[in-house]
Amino acid sequence: MAKIKTSFFCQNCGAQSPKWVGRCNSCGEWNTFVEEIVERETTKTTSFLAGTGNQPKLLHEVSSENTERIDTCNQELNRVLGGGLVPGSMVLIGGEPGIGKSTLVLQLALDLKNRKILYVSGEESIQQIKIRAQRLQKENQNCYFLSETSLEHILTQSQHMAPDLLIVDSIQTVSTEMIESSPGSVGQIRECTHGILKYAKENNVPVILIGHITKEGSLAGPKVLEHIVDTVLQFEGENQYMYRILRAIKNRFGSTSELGIFEMGNGGLREVSNPSELLINRAHEGLSGT
């Protein structure tokens, strides 16, 4: 029996080491290294990962209809993305727990009434999602919900449905049977992201992933995750204040200098189309000593 090759990975930053170490040399965290299998078992194969792939084409053979951006029905999000979602692209949205990432993408899914949406949640049941949707007072007959953590089942359902947009909340909860490690580990995150990316590119379907962040404010999981996706968005704010800021850290299809401003309320997130008015109002607030 062949020996299974393993390595140690930092669960905070994704750094790799041939042996266990107490302190990560990359991020400085203690006791974050976990042993994981680094070679796949050859007996485990799946049709969606071992497909034939796309065929080479000349640019004049590519239909311009397939390159048009998808309007998200959210002007702030559209601007940060560079004009909307690019078909076949993968967008990663990161932010602190409770900041409103799930609310942002749920509102997006419910607002795109002329598109078929598949919203996959590994953190909430469909009943819990319905409660949040009722609070938002939104409904979309073309938005389908799936509570699932298996990558194989998610991609099988996606192939069957052929949605116009796939949303996964969150990538840390998804796992594949090809990797013998727990969900959220470096190997699982890397492999699942590659599998979803392959589906997105071959089917020209945009994908939005929700990602957790570490206590230092960086995206949890391997740093290679940020290189795999096309766009990395950071959703920021403070829980005691109502305003949220969406900014692009990386954007292959647009600028990284744009900001989107939202206001969190009982009915969800509201776009702040005039941030100048917001800043002026805050400047008029009473200050100590005046």
Question: Can you describe what's shown?
Answer:
The chain has 290 residues and is α/β, with parallel strands linked by helices. The longest helix has 18 residues, at 186-203. The termini are far apart. The chain has helices at 75-81, 101-111, 126-136, 151-161, 186-203, 224-228, 275-283; strands at residues 6-10, 16-17, 33-37, 90-95, 117-121, 143-147, 165-169, 207-211, 231-237, 243-251, 259-265, 268-271. It has 2 domains: 6-37, no CATH class; 69-283, 3-Layer(aba) Sandwich (Rossmann fold). Strand 10 (243-251) and strand 11 (259-265) form a beta hairpin. Residues 41-45 have low confidence and may be disordered. The strands form 2 sheets. A 9-stranded mixed β-sheet has the order 6-5-7-8-4-9-10-11-12, with helices on both faces. A 3-stranded antiparallel β-sheet has the order 2-1-3, with no helix packed on it. It is globular and about 60 Å long. The relative contact order is 0.16. It is built from 7 helices and 12 strands.
